[in-house]
Amino acid sequence: MAAADEEQGPGEPDEPGPEEFVYGEEDFVVQAAGWEAEPDSALSRFDRALLDSWTDRMERGFFRYQLGPLPTRVLPGPMRLVAQLNVQRSTERRPPQLVQSLRQPFDPRAFNFTRLRRGEVLLRLRGAGPAARDPLLVAINASPLERGHVLLLPEPARRLPQALTAPALHGALEAAFLSAHPGFRVGFNGLGGRASVNHLHLHGFYLPRPLLVETAPAEPLCRGLSLLRAVPAPAFLFYAAGPAALPALCRDACRAAEHLAAAGLACNIFATRGEAPEGGGAGRGLRVLLWARRPSFGGAAGAGLEVALCELAGYLPLPAAPLFQRITEQEALGAIRQHLLPEPELLSLGRDLARLLQG
Predict the structure, then answer these.
(1) Which one of 149, 201, 203, 339 is the catalytic residue?
(2) Local confidence band at 2 (pLDDT 50, 70, 90 cut-offs)
(3) 181 annotated active-site
């Protein structure tokens, strides 16, 4: 990992560096609390380290804008979509890179995460023990969606393109298990799924609102794979009751994502605390949703929504006040679902994935 440090972008001599965050089994929050209590009332060691350093960088001016309280409302309707006004993200963020292919190679001439300033990197997550994987860097997203919005960067010096790998997903999902906050979410936008930088990364952020995808009932497809249909965007569901389940989950999710790419489909992934697929009060482990979609290349479309992992999960960051004030559930769902597969194709794909994972 030293190579990544050497390749980090320039910074001022007094810029803070990343905190070395070493964690063990005792740091995992296996069954996180629900929404009954105040979400910030019992933060974990990881939550405090991330949020304290994130706030420090906000105060030091490392972000493109100051993020204050954001107007937020739940749209009327059964999907309980969470709409949030964030004008500055749409006006101040770095323009997304041009993506033209699901297999687009890494381009060292384009912006990538080896160019981050030293002060933009908050934490270096490293599991304790002889079997620990390579560290995962936690860096600010300079154009944040919400408080604590970070980038999760596995080995940036390797210059991997934005194609999901099992080690990258495993590291990000372990980070999710380090959080005690019910609203800490992790996600991935693939190429053609609105990834804005073609350099391997995932997102993490705190959204202090419940989402329907946490509790919606699931239909089993095979061992380890279910289908969520009564959600804003129907998705395939993997579930981990605890960190011990992550190796198999990450292997299966990445096999499924690779199957989609081979079929010419893009993907998005969203991980959140939630109920077990079988329901019955089995606790709040980690739900990992996978969406198959038609690739989206070029500009945003449909009701001013750039449909990526947040919108698919039912969280709508909106760029303009008039849209925030008038948008309806029906309008939002129309914009979201135009990128998804028709139900017969989705069900056929589910059967294909079940055969793939059972084999």
Answers:
(1) 201
(2) very low
(3) no
